[in-house]
Structures are given as structure tokens and as C-alpha cells.
Specification:
It is built from eleven helices and 18 strands. The chain is of the alpha+beta class. The protein folds into two domains: 219 residues, 4-Layer Sandwich (Phosphatase 2c, domain 1); 165 residues, no CATH class.
Length: 390
Amino acid sequence: MNNLFTDIGFCSLNKYGEQLCGDHVEIVKQNEDSLIMVLADGLGSGVKASILSILTSKIISTMMANSMSIKECVSTIASTLPVCEKRGIAYSTFTIIRVVDNKEAEIIQYDNPHVILLRNGKNYDYAKTGMRIGEKVIFRSNLKLQLNDLFILMSDGAVYAGAGRALNYDWRRENIISYMEQLYKSSYDAKTISSLLLEKCNSLYEGIPGDDTTIGAIKIRQKQQINLIIGPPADPGDVRKMMSMFFSNEGKRIVCGGTTSHLAAEYLGKDLNTQIKYIDSEIPPTAEIEGVDLVTEGVITMNRVLQYAQSYLQNNEYYAEWGWKKDGASLVSKLLFEEATDINFYVGTALNPAHQNPDLPKNLSIKVTIVNELIEYLKKMGKRIKVIFF
């Protein structure tokens, strides 16, 4: 255990006209602080490429998670996957990063553009050792990790972005390095970084990608705990216990819901200062309580956060909206998606008739349903979640 956290994000563009992506990213967590990330680029595009990349990434990640050597992995792939009739090639290219205890990284690369490492926001030229397995040359690297180290993985669609359309023949790995050095902000999480670079590639392709393009990012961050409380407890006698647990934890605090904010203000002996200005016409204004980092409305706000979370796990299309706005839903999203590594939820289950869906059981409120769905999305983001219901 240490105070570091490995943050992961990735996103893809399909080749224009294809329903399936020929790239695939597979992640296997070995324990709380160790993981394996594989980005595979299947030969060609479409269904065959998709199958090749999925099988390659799943075979490699599973075998490496079980401590098998890269030689065994490559041999297994070569003997397992079908051979392309035209090219005589049996498997896709791949990039592997194994993070151990958030302290060390092993990088294994075969024919994908080499991983970029930004250290303190600048390119770091890490050592690579070539090894031959059959007719393939695999590059291997081992290095000690530092806080804010940022690894950028990519399929070859990234380095050819624009070719033949924007006439951009100078967009290569070196240019991507320069672009990311200029773009770099220490506050950006891995998903934001991968989304911004993929957006640039799509722009160079003029929205018509000539190849499947995938960007993956791994960032070494400090753990950041966020605490969120929403809804009063079912038993009014549990209010003080719920508030005591919420305010005793370290980290930033989010209070969601009108009744909940009044209870929090009362517990702290502070004023609740409400706002009347709408930044987003559909999201109620935030409020302020001394000692609380963010105070928002409940169900409407959290339902919007849920929509943003779903998008975040896919193509992150709403980032341009919540990434810069200051309404309650956007601010909650920034805290939960970008800042938090560990999140504690305190969920009151008292029913609010105004928020009750007549199609749901009486003991299951819309609020609890939204929170449960959001928790599942956050887990898929790699967040470590604890939840207590009252």
C-alpha cells in the first residue's frame, strides 16, 4: 500500500464506414495497486481486425496476469489466432504496460508506435531493449515510476492521422510528443488526456478516420478521497450518526439534496447560503456551507452526472460541456471523474414522494437507483468505492 494511484483512460475511433473497431484495450487488475493494460491493433479493419485485437489483448493480459513470460504469450498468440491469407501474418500488433504496486512499470511493445512517457510534462526518453521471439522483435523497458508520470499508448491510426485528407504529412510520434507537451496540465486525468489527443487525431482526419485509432493513457497520481452524502436517512434518529461519519473523513466533501444540505448546515452550526442564478437552465443552482466543498440539489443534478458518467466511459463526448461549466452537475462530475481516486458514498434512503417512480417498488427510490448506477460507472472508471446506506 502507498499513497499513489494508477489512473487509466482510453478511447477509440472506428475507421470510417466500419461498425467495429479493429483496436482493443484490455485491463486486468492484479490487486489494488497493480495492473496490466494491453492495447492491441488487429490486422486490417472491420470484423476480422476486431476479433484479432480482442483475442490478442485478452490472451496476453490473462497470461501475463498469471505470471507467464512474454515469449509464452507471443507463442500462444501465434499458434492460436488465424493467419491472414494475403499477408501470412497471424496476430495483431500490441503494447503492454504492467504497473506493479504503483512503483514500477514494465513496457513491452511490438510494432505499435512506441509509448510516450511525459515526466514533469516533458518527454522522457526511457531505455528499450530489443529481444527476438521467432521472427518478431519485441522491445522491453523497465523503469521506476514517479508522481505524475504519464504514459501515452496508441495504435498506428494516431501517427497517420490526416494523411491523404488534411495533407498533414508531418504528424508523427515526434509531433504528438510536442503537441502533448504543449497541452499537458498536471490536473488532467488519464481519460481527459486520451480524449483530447483522440479529438486532435479526428480533426486531422477531418472527421473521416482512415484507420482505427486508439489512444490509451496511464497516469501516476496521488490518492484523492472524495466524500459524497445524498438524502436524509430512513430513520431520523440516524441523522447525527450519518453526518458524523461523513464529516469525520479526510478529503473533499459534496452535499447533495435540499433536505440533506439543511441537515448538514444544522449539524455544523453554519448558515446555508442558497443561490438563485442558473448557469444551466436545467440544473438547479448550487449553495454554500462553510466547511463543505460543494453543495448541490439532489436527484436532477445527479441524474445529469449519471449521463456524463455513461458518456465518459465511451467517447467522452460531453467533456466539452462539463469540463468547463460551473453548474452543480459539472462540478460534481469534475470532482468524481477527474479528481477522485477513492469515493465514499453516504446514501440516505428516506423516500421523497416528489421523486418516487410509481413503477418502482415503494422501498426503491429514484435517488437510490441513480446512485447505484453511478457507483457502477465509477467502478468501471477504476475508482475505489465505499458506500453506506442509512
